[in-house]
Amino acid sequence: MKLNIALLAGDGIGPEVIDQAVKVCDAVAKKFSHEINWKPALTGAAAIDAVGEPYPDETHETCISSDAVLFGAIGHPRFDNDPSAKVRPEQGLLKMRQKLGLFANVRPTFTFPSLIDKSPLKRERIEGTDLVFLRELTGGIYFGKRGREDNGDTAYDTCTYTRAEIQRLAKKGFELAMKRSKKLCCVDKANVLESSRLWRETVQEMAKDYPEVSVSYEFVDAVAMRLVQWPNDYDVLITENMFGDILTDEASVISGSMGLMPSASVGESIGLYEPIHGSYPQAAGKDIANPLATILSAAMLFDDLNLAEEAETIRNIVNASLAEGVVTEDLAEGGKSYKTSEVGDWLAARV
Ligand code: IPM
Ligand code: MN
């Protein structure tokens, strides 16, 4: 099979972790006789510096003419403390999600047996955790009406959802639940927010079409608490954009390192695969960042292209590297650690 994959390395540690994913994917492609045509394109602060825009049209063209997009990270500290910056790297990510119609963000959270004691949570609570968030990604407060009034002294961001937006996300949730343990949790704040009441109403209606799925409805604040107490109670969770942003960062703690959790953003056509961590500017250029979240995101990419064996190959070698202690310093706990590039080389050689 010939694959065209847009390669958006982005900022900070993005290029370093992306390089490792490329090594591993190339090795997998070779093993299974595929040919990957990588198509690099600019995004984030790197794109602002080069062309003044975080998601240039040319990058969009590259994405839509590819089979999938592999993405590193974006964000740069020089924008974070400058509220007046007109163009920000994050706008590139939001524009990309919107223009590519990526309305569903799939964020799995699972534990690795060899890392169970790296988690700050107790072993007996987290053992066997295997849950998936489906976060709505192109609506809600991220894309609602916003502005300033009162000479700039009042600011607002509005959270708007349509029934159709909720339905298409929830449909993916029900379908995923049917393939897994037939358990779905709708996370909202329906005791306060009107948009949440529309979520709940819509999901309740849809539940009639999936009689086998047991659906629970929980408030986001309660989920925030229960998620780290009893993660095994959950399987598939669906939620709106900002609740999902917050809860998935929280959930990543369960696995022991944010550097491990992959994600897929899917929707109308091609998918985008990216680690859930950010650009980690403090580590940029030091060859110390954990590349596994990006490499596991590449496994999700293969899965979505119906290349399940290829995906499994990646997951198996990642497990082997963890079991053998071939890990970056975030997981080494003072023991021997490997450079980002060494982990990539080790994995690629193992394929
Ligand atoms: C994420 C990130 C983004 C988000 C930022 C960088 C805009 O935190 O992918 O979770 O809030 O969606
Ligand atoms: Mn986030």
From TrEMBL:
Span of domain Isopropylmalate dehydrogenase-like: 4-347
Keywords: Amino-acid biosynthesis, Branched-chain amino acid biosynthesis, Cytoplasm, Leucine biosynthesis, Magnesium, Manganese, Metal-binding, NAD, Oxidoreductase
Pfam families: Iso_dh (PF00180)
Annotated binding of substrate, by residue: 97, 107, 135, 221
Annotated catalysed reactions: (2R,3S)-3-isopropylmalate + NAD(+) = 4-methyl-2-oxopentanoate + CO2 + NADH
Locations listed in the record: Cytoplasm
Enzyme Commission number(s) from the entry: 1.1.1.85
GO biological process terms on file: L-leucine biosynthetic process
UniProt xrefs under Gene3D superfamilies: Isopropylmalate Dehydrogenase
SMART domains attached to this UniProt entry: Iso_dh
Record: residues binding Mg(2+): 221, 245, 249
GO terms under cellular component: cytosol
PROSITE patterns membership: IDH_IMDH (PS00470)
Highest taxon above the source species: Bacteria
UniProt KW Oxidoreductase keyword: yes
Function: Catalyzes the oxidation of 3-carboxy-2-hydroxy-4-methylpentanoate (3-isopropylmalate) to 3-carboxy-4-methyl-2-oxopentanoate. The product decarboxylates to 4-methyl-2 oxopentanoate.
Subunit structure: Homodimer.
Entry's family note: Belongs to the isocitrate and isopropylmalate dehydrogenases family. LeuB type 1 subfamily.
Entry protein name: 3-isopropylmalate dehydrogenase
Source organism of the structure: Poritiphilus flavus
Gene name as annotated: leuB
